[in-house]
Amino acid sequence: MKPNVIYGFVFVMSLFASLFIGLVAIWNRKSIKHRERLHKLEKERNEQMLNASISGQEKERSRIANDLHDDLGPLLSALKLQLNTSKEDLDIDTIQYTLNETVQNLRSVSSRMSPVVLEQLGLNKAVLDVSARFKQYSEINIEVDWDDEIENYIDERTSLNVYRIIQESLNNIIKHAEASKAWIIGEVMDNKIIIRIKDDGKGFEYSCLPGEMGLGINSMKARSEVIHASLEINTQPSGTEVVLTYEI
Q1: Confidence band (pLDDT; 50, 70, 90) for 35?
Q2: 35: which of 78, 103, 187, 222 is 20 to 30 A away, CA to CA?
Q3: Are the beta carbons of 241 and 204 closer than 8 angstroms?
Q4: According to the CATH classification, is domain 115-248 in 3.30.70.260?
């Protein structure tokens, strides 16, 4: 083989090698930048979830503090006044009634802090319990259509987050929806658990959300992401529907 041919062959191979190395270097740079972008997005998403979770916890603490102040404060003050009277003027029946009211309110606040029914009887009973309590505290008729098989497919952590999402949805309905009726529907379908919380209220505009409601929705979204479920909120002037979908 002639030297010129050999040199030409070597030159072409060197050119191809340089081109290949250059392409690899470009791909590596793009891959590194892509990973950096993904890492940044993941970090931002985690920070948003953490902020939403912290905001939700702070809101819950504030709500509990308000409940303690509004519900138990007056009762304890009344009880103190009753006990400060002379022995001859003590009304045992009134004191007993006030004590019973205080205990019931304390149990209610305690239940909102840590759902005892959920821990002792499971998600199915807890959903019926929370709907009954919200129905009692409001004039909204709440109907429950719940598949008892749901409880068999999820663990305790998932049950707690599902319960809190339902609880927050009902809270938003009572405080903001101006609804007369609400529904809690839970079903197992196509290897998925689908939970719907609906109302016939006035709906809302995302851009005009009240601060408290916005925090509640962010908290629900954060809880759904923690259990790897999807959360959709569909709203219109005829009502709002929260749809939680969890793959089994």
Answers
A1: confident
A2: 222
A3: no
A4: no
